[in-house]
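Final report, results section. Input specification for complex C-07:
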Amino acid sequence: ETGVTQSPTHLIKTRGQQVTLRCSSQSGHNTVSWYQQALGQGPQFIFQYYREEENGRGNFPPRFSGLQFPNYSSELNVNALELDDSALYLCASSLGENHSPLHFGNGTRLTVT
Amino acid sequence: GQSLEQPSEVTAVEGAIVQINCTYQTSGFYGLSWYQQHDGGAPTFLSYNGLDGLEETGRFSSFLSRSDSYGYLLLQELQMKDSASYFCAVRDPQAGTALIFGKGTTLSVSS
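Structure output:
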């Protein structure tokens, strides 16, 4: 059973640029959610995809967007990067059922300069 | 909206017992979860309480009181490897099965 994998592990971008982060779900999982985790804080929910449709969104601006593909892998895109976007971005997959635990990847550390 | 409160830091020695409390406010409640995250690592699922009472998994137990909007994670026979951040989390009813996390409690276990 392959776990959740994210790429890249680290990334440095300049303010105003765009970035795409990638996530491969755990085998058999049809739901993926993305979280932003600032240093010393808990993960903050960005959005969730279920069977290629966004079915929930947290308090993030529209420049944060995503996709889920037929194989349930996913992308997070962030446009017009700001310094405050510097954080660990975590992807989590699950079975999409009530109370299904989230399985997280190791995250992508994004630094915006 | 949803909000969770938990202590920011807890310290303990090896072999001790520690309790991490969590109080929550939600517009709809679907259970309380706990996750562990080591420095630089991925959060990992520890436990889930959907109903009142105690759930035990090895050295870790979790408790829920829905009437008090309160839960706790109990860690027994502490080991150095238990040094990590612990997050309580509730479901966001507006967002499928996504979770809203507390800010986390950093547990430091010393010898």
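The longest strand of chain A covers residues 87-94. The mean pLDDT of chain A is 94. This concludes the modelling results for the funded period.
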